[in-house]
User: Which sequence fits this backbone?
């Protein structure tokens, strides 16, 4: 278990690797009072001595025996602690800081090059682009992420397997972190590659893009003849070798009603889970969403009813946020900057994949160390910043578009005089560039574990 200190308290993260389930990551959060008492739990002190030590260290927050008993009852129920009559050994790793937020999760876009020209690509990647992340810097940041309580990285691109040091980077990450996700189109994920990655099977998770059960539709969407066949073969091999993987579908008006048949294909090839998202109106994706805006009411009603049917019938297979995760997103935000960041192929650090580096400037891994980057205090600001929601925005006509997303709130709010969310949060003081410049289409939900 990792105990990651935060200015708000602490996160406790534990990964279960042996049950084969996708949602195998345990995460609990406690406030500062809970963090202080839990950090003292080394398995060696009886409750009375633990209380005495706590109250001596924190005289402004004296904890009574009754309150301590109630806290540990709840903590034991949530699997944060184990109590016993004898001394216990703990392998918990304590990291992080009570002064600054350090992320638990980072996404590395190894390159902007891709062998496809996908219609919705959030980086507008193509075979003609050749930017590469520096391998030594990626390793430096993976090491620092681990040392400061982080446990998850996502490796993506472009097509990450086109980076010359792809296997070296994956090996390095798997040897240090609890979970490593590789987001790929599957074209190069064939037998030889999987043989090289078998040793990391318990740590690795793959995300494979599949946009229809119809070969011609998938190939057209991905801009590559034969893409469907390569993807299906990669899925078959992943299933045969027992790797965990998610099939991710990008949805437009053209393939909206392909979702169920694509789910069936994923299940047939032993996918662990399935996720789909609608293409967003950025970059190449902007043209693809025009059908959403022009669709008549009856057509939209059919789509909603279809998706409600899908979510009910396949709820045990779909990769969706849990009620607890949704509650967290709605109460604050998705975790940008304070829990997760994205690093682009030139080293620029962004709040998430959907942001360009010039909207909110965080720095660059090529000229800043991990701690320099996150000691700016901006993580503390965004940890407390609510995303657009009804309680703030009221009956605003843009709420359906902006809800729960800070970037979309910035995009609409910056052009909407009197935006209640912009005024309440003061977010524009942190915005340096225009969100209109972002080359972004669809982006899948982060790996939920």
Assistant:
């Amino acid at each position: 278990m990792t105990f990651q200190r935060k200015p708000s308290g602490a996160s406790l993260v534990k990964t279960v690797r042996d049950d084969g389930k996708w949602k195998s990551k345990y995460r609990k959060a406690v406030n500062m009072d809970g963090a202080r008492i839990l950090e003292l739990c080394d398995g060696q002190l009886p409750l009375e001595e633990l209380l005495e030590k706590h109250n001596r260290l924190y005289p402004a927050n004296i904890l009574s025996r009754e309150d301590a008993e109630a806290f540990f009852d709840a903590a034991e129920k949530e699997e944060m602690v184990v109590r016993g009559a004898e001394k216990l050994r703990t392998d918990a790793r304590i990291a992080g800081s009570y002064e600054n937020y350090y992320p638990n999760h980072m996404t590395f876009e190894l390159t902007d090059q891709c062998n496809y020209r996908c219609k919705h690509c959030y980086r507008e990647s193509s075979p003609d682009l050749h930017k590469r992340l520096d391998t030594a810097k990626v390793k430096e940041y993976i090491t620092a992420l681990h040392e400061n309580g982080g446990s998850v990285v996502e490796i993506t691109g472009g097509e990450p397997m086109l980076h010359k040091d792809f296997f070296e980077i994956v090996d390095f990450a798997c040897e240090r972190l609890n979970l490593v996700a590789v987001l790929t189109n599957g074209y190069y994920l064939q037998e030889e590659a999987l043989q090289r990655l078998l040793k990391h099977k318990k740590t690795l998770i793959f995300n494979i893009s599949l946009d229809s059960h119809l070969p011609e539709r998938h190939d057209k969407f991905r801009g590559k003849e034969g893409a469907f066949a390569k993807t299906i073969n990669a899925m078959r091999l992943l299933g045969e070798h027992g790797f965990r993987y998610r099939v991710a579908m990008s949805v437009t008006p053209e393939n909206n009603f392909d979702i169920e048949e694509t789910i069936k294909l994923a299940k047939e090839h032993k996918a662990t889970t399935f996720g789909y998202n609608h293409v967003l109106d950025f970059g190449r994706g902007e043209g693809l969403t025009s059908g959403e805006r022009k669709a008549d009411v009856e057509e939209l009603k059919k789509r909603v009813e279809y998706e409600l049917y899908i979510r009910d019938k396949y709820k045990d297979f779909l990769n969706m946020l849990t009620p607890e995760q949704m509650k967290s997103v709605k109460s604050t935000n998705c975790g940008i900057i304070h829990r997760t960041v994205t690093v682009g192929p030139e080293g620029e650090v962004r709040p998430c994949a959907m942001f360009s580096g010039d909207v909110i400037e965080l720095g660059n891994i090529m000229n800043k160390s991990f701690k320099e980057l996150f000691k700016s205090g901006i993580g503390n600001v965004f940890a407390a910043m609510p995303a657009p929601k009804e309680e703030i925005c009221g009956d605003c006509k843009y709420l359906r578009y902006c809800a729960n997303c800070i970037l979309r709130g910035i995009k609409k709010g910056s052009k909407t005089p009197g935006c209640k969310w912009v005024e309440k949060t003061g977010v524009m003081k942190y915005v340096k560039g225009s969100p209109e410049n972002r080359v972004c289409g669809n982006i899948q939900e982060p790996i939920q574990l």
The first helix runs from residue 32 to 39. The two ends are 15 Å apart (CA to CA).
